[in-house]
Amino acid sequence: MTDAMPPVVGPASWGAAAVAAVLSPIPLADEVVLFPALLGVGAAVGRARGLPLRALPWGAFAATAAIGLAARAGINLAVSYLPGIAAVANATTAYALTHAFGAWAHAACIDPSRARPPSYSDLADAIRSGWRAARAPA
């Protein structure tokens, strides 16, 4: 077991961004795809922490994924009527959510029996900060 975030989180975040950009013209289609993908990230993080699948906090994973996707949808709603900008916003928030979810799952797997989902506002803030970081000039 390691304290470093598992390497699966980075590629999963980029994959989520690609899926969200492609599916941005279809309302809520990316949420349908991202929900099981986030659970897969949670499983991969748990496995990297040495936990068997049955020991993972599946209820907390599902609640956190649902809360995060709701927060993400709320953020994306503001630009959903602008096709090019909507694709960029969808991709950016999908990346930020997946990365935030991976970090949360990493912490949750330290003691799965005590894992609790973060609040809606905490996840929305994490997504917004990831969005701002992605838009910042290098």
Structure, explained:
The chain is mainly α and 138 residues long. It has one domain (9-135). It has 5 helices and no strands.
Labels describing this entry:
elongated; 5 helices; 138 residues; mainly alpha
Tally of DSSP helical segments = 5
Structural class determined from secondary elements: mainly alpha
Quantity of strands, as a count: 0
The mean pLDDT is 85
> What shape does the CA trace take?
elongated
Number of domains: 1
Stretches with pLDDT under 50, minimum 5 residues: none
User: What is the CA-based Rg, rounded?
Assistant: 14 Å
Helix content: over 70%
Q: Beta-strand level of the residues, as a percent range? A: under 5%
The helix/strand order is: HHHHH
Q: Termini, distance in Å? A: 33 Å
Quick overview:
This protein is 70% helix and 0% strand. The protein is built from 5 helices and no strands.
What is this structure's SSE topology?
Layout: H1 9-23, H2 29-48, H3 58-77, H4 83-108, H5 120-135
